[in-house]
Amino acid sequence: MKMYYYADAKQALRSMTDQLGALISAIGEPYFNLAVSGGGTAKKMFSLWADEYRSLIDWKRVRFYWVDERCVSPKDDESNYKHAKDLFFDPLKISTEQIFRIHGESKPYEESERYSEVVRDHVPPVEKYPRFHSIILGAGDDGHTASIFPDNLSLLTAKDNYAVSHHPLSGQARITMTGPQILCRCPIFVPIFGEHKKWIIEGLVKGGEKTTYIPVQYIVRAAEDATIFTDIAI
Ligand SMILES: O=C1O[C@H](COP(=O)(O)O)[C@@H](O)[C@H](O)[C@H]1O
């Protein structure tokens, strides 16, 4: 695990995006398969990409997939896809052919199967799982990553690429990438911002017993190539 500290979230996201841009330029393949997350951190990231990275990255080569989605309509303010669309895809006129969204409006179990297949069809595998060129994760206030919450750690080792989960408080259904699919041997970027997430950064730095890991800690420690970008000094 690598961890880089910055004075604020914007500087951290710039550094992360510079690294992403370098990866996109470096691959000798026509498409760059990128899986993105949702939530407040992703909103900041998409705004920054639209404001500052419009012409700095060859976005035409990027295919966008999702790490997780809330089971709501794509027009709902809770939709992870909607944030990306409003803040980034629409302003940059990203072609719909590059966008592989999770259908939050469909029946959750059917959709997790359909989307697993979409990813298997488009993202070439390494061993058993499709290997994205990069995955951008987030870390929720409770230590969840993707939509793998601390009350459902079995998703960290579930066999399917994507599965259904539920938010522990609201019960909202989600579709989430599972642990083995996240750990598919690609570079993983994890932006984590705000003092309220200091306990997560502390946990990542200190380590501890595997049995007490929260989801984001489990993933970051198990990943071959995970980089944290943070504004949280410890
Ligand atoms: O629910 C979600 O939350 C996490 C973290 O979001 P943030 O608002 O704390 O930045 C996010 O990674 C995930 O994709 C999203 O569905």
TrEMBL record:
<comment type="similarity">
    <text>Belongs to the glucosamine/galactosamine-6-phosphate isomerase family. 6-phosphogluconolactonase subfamily.</text>
</comment>
<dbReference type="InterPro" id="IPR037171">
    <property type="entry name" value="NagB/RpiA_transferase-like"/>
</dbReference>
<comment type="function">
    <text>Hydrolysis of 6-phosphogluconolactone to 6-phosphogluconate.</text>
</comment>
<dbReference type="InterPro" id="IPR039104">
    <property type="entry name" value="6PGL"/>
</dbReference>
<comment type="pathway">
    <text>Carbohydrate degradation; pentose phosphate pathway; D-ribulose 5-phosphate from D-glucose 6-phosphate (oxidative stage): step 2/3.</text>
</comment>
<dbReference type="InterPro" id="IPR005900">
    <property type="entry name" value="6-phosphogluconolactonase_DevB"/>
</dbReference>
<dbReference type="GO" id="GO:0017057">
    <property type="term" value="F:6-phosphogluconolactonase activity"/>
</dbReference>
<feature type="domain" description="Glucosamine/galactosamine-6-phosphate isomerase">
    <location>
        <begin position="12"/>
        <end position="223"/>
    </location>
</feature>
<keyword id="KW-0378">Hydrolase</keyword>
<dbReference type="InterPro" id="IPR006148">
    <property type="entry name" value="Glc/Gal-6P_isomerase"/>
</dbReference>
<protein>
    <recommendedName>
        <fullName>6-phosphogluconolactonase</fullName>
        <ecNumber>3.1.1.31</ecNumber>
    </recommendedName>
</protein>
<dbReference type="Pfam" id="PF01182">
    <property type="entry name" value="Glucosamine_iso"/>
</dbReference>
